[in-house]
Amino acid sequence: MAVAEMGVEIRWRSEQGHHTHDNRDCCGVGLRDDAVLAIVLDGSSNGKASGAFARDVARNLIDWFVVAEVVTPKTIIDRLRVIHAELSGTYRRDSASVVIARIERQGATCILHAGDCLAGLVQETSDIEWSIQPHNLANAISPVAIDELARSPSRNLLTRSFRTKRFMVPQETVQTFRAGQRLVLTTDGFWASLDPEQMTAFLRGDAFQPSEDRDDCSALTLTVVEDQPDEVIEAAGNNFYVVDARH
């Protein structure tokens, strides 16, 4: 029996916060006949050029993905090593949290992450079932519920990230992603700053009332659809990069 062709609907929403003069969240998506690669980064508010650093990482990885002969978790990590070596001379004190999802057309999904960007499946109730844990001091000993982590001051002390001083290998997670499901990749301004109602409104594209002192808030939603082509439904702002290499 032939496997149904899977397409992906793509929605990106990103709102600048008040911690930096620029929005340091960014997103990249590459589309191939056999797979989709998505990356979301959150540039650190400490490094002066961490936003530019994050955008260069996203563009470099997507440009590589659309022409690479072999794309596996290992080759993605190998490419990240190359990107790190190429950019560390220009961005000497910058860093970013990163989450990457490689989605095969048959639904197999690999997630790589370092830092406090998260990935999860959006349920019918609009709740999110988080697939990974952030890398921070609050959960360094054992896993902690995401809503509890959001209230912990030590969550901002990262134990792993994509930083120019030293390359840190991302953590790998394998997940099945079926037709009709929604995978969301978010920065911590989303999962740690918004309550459940605000999260639902943000993902729908509705207006929401965030706190006055908030970080950049971004979410990439990927919905698998059968027998339909890939489509970018919503992507506002200059921090979204997409390359379509389908034949």
UniProtKB/TrEMBL annotation:
Specify whether Metal-binding is a keyword of the entry.
no
Q: What is its EC number?
A: 3.1.3.16
Single Gene Ontology MF annotation: protein serine/threonine phosphatase activity
Q: Which residues form the PPM-type phosphatase domain?
A: 3-222
Q: What are the entry keywords? A: Hydrolase
Please indicate if the UniProt record lists Hydrolase as a keyword.
yes
The protein, known as: PP2C family protein-serine/threonine phosphatase
